Amino acid sequence: MSTVMWWDPSRIEATVTRPFVCSHLLPDEIIRLDLPLGFGDGLTDGTYWEWIDEKAKRIFLILSDLGVPDQIFGLIDDSWDDDDLPVPLDQIERLALTPTRDDKIEKRFYSRQFHYLLKFIEKGDYVIYEDPEVVPLNVDKRTGLNIGTAVDRVELPNRPGEAFSRRRIPVGTGPGFLTGEEFLYEINKAKNLENIHLASYYGSYVHQGFAYVLFSLPSDFSLKSLLVTQPSSVKSLAKQDRRRLLMNWIHCLVDALCYLHIRGLSHGNIKPSTVLYNADNHVFYADISRLSVEAIANTSDKSTFDKEAYDYAAPEQWYRPSASHSGPQRRSTLVGSSTSTSTSSDNSTFSINRGGSESLNPVSMLHSPTPSLNPQAVDIFSLGCVILELLSFLMKRQTRNFASHRAAKHKQAGRGGAVLDSSFHKNIGQVESWMVGLAKDASKKDDQVFRGVGPMLQVVARMLSIVPQDRPTAQEVEQSTYKILTENCLIAEPHCVHQYGGWDFGFSNLSISRGGDNFNISTRRQSGSARPSSRLGSVGSGSYRPLSSSSIQERDMASGSSSQAMQNARVNKVRNWQAHIYAGNHDGSPNTNLM
Is residue 416 part of a domain? Predict the structure, then answer.
């Protein structure tokens, strides 16, 4: 990235020294530096150098840029100093920069002065720049990094070593534009969210008629591209490190979703193209606001059918399940139960009541959400689809083959002659058979990481329930995923070890049974009308996630056994992100070289 020398106050102070000033003046002018000021009628004993040093360093830099540094003496005689900047264009004539007026020099002075009057963008700022002002940032012009004309990668001189995604937001009154009030609302909403696995708001500004927003974590790749071609950052990893990376990614995505859901929010657009990662293999979601890349891209044509969004959408976003499947009393969870519950290979739990949805227009349905839609349950379904794609990638199954497998039962193209329907929600039976194949393949692998594939498929099976009420919460999925990584995959330190206020949930209600060469992916349904919110699974201390001190106290109060609870709890370790921690060391020990 080509960089510019940005003149912040410290650089100005360090640059404009006595030797620097002398290097731009003739010998007789250097002598004049130590003469008393030519104004004040003897009331001051200050010198020209002292005036420059204390009051006119910026002016001297501008004059030097214009090739007229000797004019500093005339400006000082007229009492000009840095506090007079910026000088309006129609007032620069008063500076008498040249013996005869020179419009070109005056215009150059006018524009150049803003390079020494920079307003740096700090975290959380919303800066309004005047049109002639200079915005201090460097735009990365390398081929392939910019996304269209509205999004690019930038660096801020006041945040060296960090990269940001800059997005140009259409603000105004035209179609697809945000009003000024809407823009301010969106940035105020976005600035309250910050997570290492979520593109987070850094700052914003307005300049020359455009509004811009800076987000952390600019992406180099998306899961959608990974499923087609592996970049060198992933391909170059050792096999076991790559496998651990993918399992850690799953946990990080679930953990970040907990962060949103615990705040009463939802992502609302989880699919492979919005699951991003960079060249350091750091995975994160695209941001959830109307300032997102997709929102920018779709402002011009909202009627465009998004097939990817359709394929990974929850069924209730496109049609309502029948009443027999949507009763509020049939809500099951991933919570362990001490009551023995028989397993079943019956897949009717995942059957889809299509209810004539094929006759409805997909585009109109997409923009007319069901009033009773639970956005967090929608997130769970979509993330389940994404996790299944990651598990398929782990098992070296190609995404195009998975899509073909899902659409295999369709006899002809749907939706007005388009390609066959390969959505998850319309092809649950095919999804199940794909999962059976993955579980069977994983059982034949020697690497310990593959021991987590079967249990993770069980979690996915619950996440893909057609009935929204039957899907687990993000916290329950996170608890189970953590347990799978630590106990099945033997990943001692999963990347994310946050605790977002949820309880510990066991995993004893899920199983994959094997009969001969056939796998049955089944779920144990908990009886009762609602998901328990304040009881612990009946599992040993090794099954618990690290809890925060506040969660430990709450759990102790609920269990009535403080000493036993404290014995079972582990210290919550929240580490700053380091790229290679994802893969982890082969012995499970922390990598001290990265600390």
Answer: no
Whole-number pLDDT of residue 298? 53
Instruction: Give Cβ neighbours of residue 81 (< 8 Å, ≥ 6 apart).
Output: 51, 55, 56, 59
Which residues, in sequence order, are CB contacts of 595 under 8 Å at separation 6+?
578
The rounded distance, in Å, linking the Cα atoms of 550 and 196 is: 22
CB-based contact 356:529 (threshold 8 Å): no
Q: How far apart are CA 337 and CA 113, in angstroms?
A: 71
Same domain, 204 and 271: no
Region 223-233: what's the mean pLDDT?
90
> Which H or E run contains 206?
strand 201-207
137 CB-near residues (< 8 Å, 6+ apart):
121, 154, 155, 156, 157, 166
Q: What angle do CA 549, 551, 553 make, to 5 degrees?
A: 70
Q: What is the mean pLDDT of residues 485-491?
A: 93
Give strand ranges (E) for 292-424: none
SS3 399: helix
* Whether residue 242 is found in the same domain as residue 368: yes
Domain with 265 in it: 221-291+306-323+347-408+422-594
pTM: 0.70
State the amino acid at position 594 in one-letter form: L
Question: Which amino acid makes up residue 478?
Answer: E
Q: Are 309 and 423 in contact (CB under 8 A)?
A: no
